[in-house]
Design brief:
CATH class: Alpha Beta
CATH topology: Spore Coat Polysaccharide Biosynthesis Protein SpsA, Chain A
Structural class: alpha/beta
Strand content: 15-25%
CATH architecture: Alpha-Beta Complex
Number of helices: 8
Distance between the termini: 33 Å
Number of domains: 1
Length: 304
């Protein structure tokens, strides 16, 4: 069955973004060489200039890609924390990162908590949206739209991900992400989905109609295999250490399959997902990364 095609009703604002002196980008990554450079470039275009990156034992070219980004733009500040802890303690690590950044850059008012496969999108310039948020708001809730592999997309890693994967699902409020106000009195949950108040004060969330995320969670057979191994091992390690609120059950299931059936089992699982995706309602919406690299005068060598 062919994918159910929907019209694209979510045009993105690609003009008018200004540098955000009061905001910082925070991410935790592992083996993201195919996407991290473009993720950082995209968020630079939106106005972010301060980047705090927790690298969890990457074994590919991820760090080299980050360095390439840092060399592209003289007005960026990139801080890389080399994290040797395999166990999946994302909430604790991201919370600690916000504490560090608030001390490092006291002018920070907002944190964009972004995974390597997530791209913040806005229908208005980001600085204008932030300036209109009331001071009483602790966190902005952002919905997501996931790009999915279909029979019309290439599941082999023989081209850039955004050229191969061009069908996304409609926006959903399931698994919302947060942009949070700088605050020493909150802790961040696994997955950057919720805040917890240390002093038991009520958290004030607000959604805005202008923000959403586009996510590329599965980008190829090889990416899915690597993510299965990394995610499964990190979850298993955390549980062995007695941490029960780990999350990532889907990666744990895929990892258990890998332990039983090896790489062939993981490939078969992804092929099943791709087949099921044929029944999903999707929007053909190529992500505009080429337009952004052209606007920033980045050479085409990066896109080869």
């Amino acid at each position: 069955m062919a994918n159910i095609s929907l019209n694209n009703t979510d045009p993105l604002c690609l003009e008018g973004h200004q540098p955000l002196s009061n905001a910082a980008f925070i991410t935790m990554i592992k083996d993201e060489e195919d996407i991290i450079l473009f993720n950082l470039i995209w968020h630079y275009h939106l106005g972010l200039r301060k980047f705090f990156i927790i690298d969890n034992l990457s074994t590919d070219q991820t760090l080299q890609q980050i360095k390439l980004f840092e060399n592209l733009f003289e007005d960026t500040r990139v801080f890389i924390l080399h994290d040797p802890i395999v166990a999946h303690y994302q909430g604790k690590k991201i919370t600690g990162a916000t504490r560090f950044v608030m001390s490092l850059w006291p002018e920070i008012e907002w944190f964009f908590l972004v995974d390597a496969d997530e791209f913040l999108c806005s229908t208005q310039p980001v600085h204008q949206v932030l300036s209109a948020i009331p001071a009483s708001v602790d966190a902005i809730v952002v919905s997501k739209s996931m790009y999915i592999l279909t029979s019309q997309d290439a599941a082999e890693n023989n081209d850039l991900f955004f050229r191969r994967i061009q069908h996304r699902k409609p926006l959903t409020h399931i698994s919302n992400k947060l942009i949070i106000r700088a605050n020493f009195q909150v802790e961040i949950s696994q997955g950057n989905h919720r805040l917890f108040s240390i002093n038991k004060q009520e958290i004030n969330y607000q959604s805005v109609p202008y923000f959403s995320y586009r996510e590329f969670p599965i980008r190829s057979h090889q990416h899915y295999l690597q993510k299965t191994k990394n995610g499964g091992r990190a979850i298993a390690e955390a549980k062995q250490q007695g941490f029960n609120q780990v999350g990532g059950n889907h990666w744990e299931a895929a990892y258990n399959l890998y332990l039983k059936e090896g790489e062939a089992g993981v490939r078969k699982r992804l092929n099943t997902v791709i087949t099921k995706n044929a029944n999903e309602a999707t929007i053909f919406d190529p992500f505009p990364l080429v337009q952004i690299t052209n606007k920033l005068n980045i050479t085409k060598d990066l896109l080869s």
